[in-house]
Design brief:
alpha/beta; Glutaredoxin; five-stranded mixed beta sheet; about 45% helix
Length: about 120
């Protein structure tokens, strides 16, 4: 089981203010970013969905998580007022924002529009 969790950590990396530019803005692939915090209950509900999407879209979409407590400047820059918030970026531009613990189908629909 720990091997599976380790693999998911590789598929869904953490983004910080230090690596935001290189991992998200300069990415050649579309990027899904989940803004979350450890104390957020709904965030725990969406984590497994983001993990599944990272696995299903390997090679087509990069998935990252941003801890808003650790990267408040990034959260503020993108107007994060509620978590979980998922944003999808393409060519360095924010293309879609999904707020709240939504079903996987909602995220899949947004992703498919950009691929």
């Amino acid at each position: 089981m720990s091997n599976i969790l380790a693999l998911l950590d590789i598929l869904v990396g953490s983004v910080t203010e230090a690596n935001w530019q290189s991992l998200v803005i300069e990415s050649e692939s579309p990027v899904l970013v989940e803004f979350w915090a450890p104390w957020c209950g709904p965030c725990r509900m969406i984590h497994p969905i983001v993990d599944q999407l990272a696995k299903e879209y390997t090679g087509k979409l990069k998935c990252y998580k941003v801890n808003t407590d650790e990267s408040p400047e990034t959260a503020t820059r993108y107007g994060i007022r509620s978590i979980p918030t998922v944003m999808i970026f393409k060519n360095g531009e924010k293309k879609d924002t999904i707020i709240g613990a939504v079903p996987k189908s909602t995220l899949t629909t947004s992703i498919e529009k950009l691929l």
